[in-house]
Amino acid sequence: MPSLKKNIKLWNSDYDWSDKGEEWSRTWSDSQNQWDMYLYPRIRAFLPADSILEIGCGFGKWTQFLKEYTSSLTAIDLSAKCIDHCKDLFRKDTNVSLYVNDGVSLDAIKRNSADFVFSFDSLVHADKEVINRYIQQIPAILKENGVAFIHHSNLGSYPIYKFIESFPKLPGLFSRLGMGLHWRDTGVSAKFVNDCCNKAGLKCISQELMPWDRRKIYTDCISVIVKDDSGKNNFPVIYKNSSFGLEIDKAKVIKQLYYFPKDYFPKKKEIQ
Known about the structure:
Blueprint lengths: L3 H11 L16 H13 L7 E5 L7 H4 L5 E6 L2 H10 L6 E5 L13 E6 L8 H14 E12 L5 H7 L4 H7 L13 H11 L1 E9 L9 E8 L9 E4 L3 H15 L14
Parallel strand pairs: 1-2, 1-4, 2-3, 4-5, 6-8
Antiparallel strand pairs: 5-7, 6-7
């Protein structure tokens, strides 16, 4: 199970950050293509935003894009190594603030300050306690009409994964069969997150389930969350995105056909 202690050790000490997080975007060709074809279409209704909070910024793979859509971006991570790298990477960006946290706390964030809370490729590796702790704090820092976009595990929807996890040799075997845990928590599910939101005075207005390893098992979920008194829908729209793998394939084709090197085409003169 990806406990808080294990995550701190992995991302701050053990993990090889030489590819700066790009290794997780290779199936999309690169992070730019993943942002253009996958992430931005899902969050463009929330951007631009006066203030953004990014939970688990890593080496700044998504921070580099988010900062272009706000006058104030606060990014936090439990890894001092990640924050040190980001401080150097974004040293010229006066709208970016960076903090190391303990993996569960939003104490560095002002109350009623965030228009958009974003976490992708990060809290998907968090356990039930961490997910619940963050959700419990979101109402205090989210503005009245603010929105949270949280990528998290959905393995808790499949009891077999809890069984697999209980035997040390089974996770490796199931990974070879294309049913790996992918460092996801076997207790977190779409329902668990929805229940946490209800208890915190929040509500999920949509949840997208995705088969990360291209099988029929929906290992991941993205929950869009608002305050309970926001006037938005009172129930989550739940969608099982069985075409997730096709999105990746289409993105690769589009990049191959239409993405050209910078200055590949000469600048056109403005029409008078």
